């Protein structure tokens, strides 16, 4: 964006801090940076503003932009349909147009008086990985004759520590004919990830785990996958190979979330036998459970095996999920001849052209 002529008042990477103590230590710097950004908006009034996701900051920026009479386009909606629905009034008051990346979000906003457009999901614009199975095997030291299972425990250390142990325990019960691929997210140190993985293994464990970089290629070439809830589930759904979704948080967090999350009528999402609403985005988009979810206390090695095994075979469950994922992929794509980003670009140009 800088190469295209953008002047950056604040560099996002300078205020990107994770962890409670780290945030507390950096609060003065973060607040000063925010005030600089607001001052720049007031000093050099923009002709149009594009806000992307990041609701805790962008709702506040939208207030200043709206007061200054600046059209506000918001790309990637905050998940107000799941919780914090009271913030909807801020969208109604401060946002000129909302560009959403999940199909049900357009109906959700329009039913509540917000000008919203479904653009398709940016990940749906990407072609399938071009690398062949043999090339991928050679690149990562894999045996292309064996079945591969991809394990995606998350992109943050807290998620990895919570999700990877059960994945590894389940993998250790499979024969040597199956190899396990572990894509390492860019947010994690590969050496630290490898050390944590080794700490979970028994001295006699002969399971083949291979750390890889390209998650999309791993999902593409794996027979099936185990994926932690998050954006990776959207990637897996768009790739189209069967997978199951897992997630674990603290018991307190889980109990609080279970009480707070309520879906609107636009998302037909009945609870499971344990009273848990679906959390995997593919299930919310489809309006039914097309991929299995194992959450919290049900997230065990034994349950992973129980659900994964049929997906590795030419079973009815495998074929049904492949068909459901194909339908979801069609629903996630933008209109023919355009992309999500192109639609946002056109809206910016329209807003600029509408000025006197």
CATH fold description of the largest domain: Rossmann fold
CATH architecture of the largest domain: 3-Layer(aba) Sandwich
End-to-end Cα distance, whole Å, is 27 Å
How big a fraction of the residues is strand? Answer: 5-15%
Number of domains: 2
Series of H and E elements:
HEHEHEHEHEHEHEHEHEHHEHHH
List unreliable stretches of 5+ residues.
Answer: none
Top-tier CATH class of the largest domain: Alpha Beta
Average pLDDT, all residues? 93
CATH superfamily of the largest domain: Glycogen Phosphorylase B
Number of helices: 14
Q: Which geometry do the CA atoms define? A: globular
The residue fraction in helices comes out at: 40-55%
Notes on the structure:
45% of the residues lie in helices and 12% in strands. The chain has 356 residues and is an alpha/beta fold. It has 2 domains: 12-122 and 335-353, Rossmann fold (3-Layer(aba) Sandwich); 133-332, 3-Layer(aba) Sandwich (Rossmann fold). The strands form 2 sheets. The chain has a 6-stranded parallel beta sheet with strand order 7-6-5-8-9-10, with helices on both faces. It has a 4-stranded parallel beta sheet with strand order 1-2-3-4, sandwiched between helices. Strand 5 (147-152), helix 6 and strand 6 (178-183) form a beta-alpha-beta unit. Helix 1 (20-43) packs parallel to helix 2 (55-67), helix 2 runs parallel beside helix 3 and helix 6 packs across helix 12. The model has no long low-confidence stretch (mean pLDDT 93).
């Amino acid at each position: 964006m800088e190469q295209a002529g953008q002047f950056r008042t604040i560099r996002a990477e300078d205020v990107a801090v994770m962890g409670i103590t780290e945030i507390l230590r950096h609060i003065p710097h973060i607040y000063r940076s925010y005030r600089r950004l607001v001052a720049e908006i007031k000093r050099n009034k923009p002709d149009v503003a594009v806000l992307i996701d990041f609701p805790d900051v962008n709702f506040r920026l939208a207030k200043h932009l709206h007061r200054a009479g600046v059209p506000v386009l918001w790309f990637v909606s905050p998940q107000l349909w799941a919780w914090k629905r009271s913030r909807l009034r801020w969208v109604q008051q401060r946002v000129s147009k909302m560009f959403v990346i999940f199909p049900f979000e357009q109906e959700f906003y329009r039913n509540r008086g917000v000008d919203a457009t479904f653009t398709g999901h940016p990940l749906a614009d990407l072609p399938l990985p071009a690398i062949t199975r043999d090339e991928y095997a050679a690149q990562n030291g894999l045996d292309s004759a064996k079945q591969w299972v991809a394990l995606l425990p998350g992109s943050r250390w807290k998620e990895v520590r919570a999700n990877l142990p059960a994945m590894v325990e389940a993998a250790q019960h499979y024969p040597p004919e199956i190899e396990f691929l572990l894509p390492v997210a860019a947010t994690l140190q590969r050496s630290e990830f490898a050390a944590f993985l080794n700490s979970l293994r028994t001295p006699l464990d002969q399971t083949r785990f291979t750390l890889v970089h390209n998650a999309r290629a791993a999902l593409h070439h794996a027979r099936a996958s185990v994926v932690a809830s998050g954006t990776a589930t959207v990637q897996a759904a768009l790739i189209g190979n069967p997978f199951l979704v897992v997630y674990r948080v603290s018991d307190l967090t889980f109990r609080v979330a279970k009480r707070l999350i309520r879906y609107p009528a636009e998302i037909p999402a009945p609870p499971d036998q344990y009273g848990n609403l679906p959390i995997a985005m593919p299930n919310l988009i489809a309006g039914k459970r097309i991929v299995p979810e194992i959450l919290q206390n049900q997230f065990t090695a034994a349950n992973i095996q129980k659900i994964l095994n049929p997906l590795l075979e030419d079973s009815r469950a495998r074929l049904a999920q492949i068909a459901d994922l194909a339908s979801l992929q069609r629903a996630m794509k933008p209109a023919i001849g355009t992309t999500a980003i192109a639609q946002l670009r056109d809206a910016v140009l329209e807003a600029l052209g509408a000025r006197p």
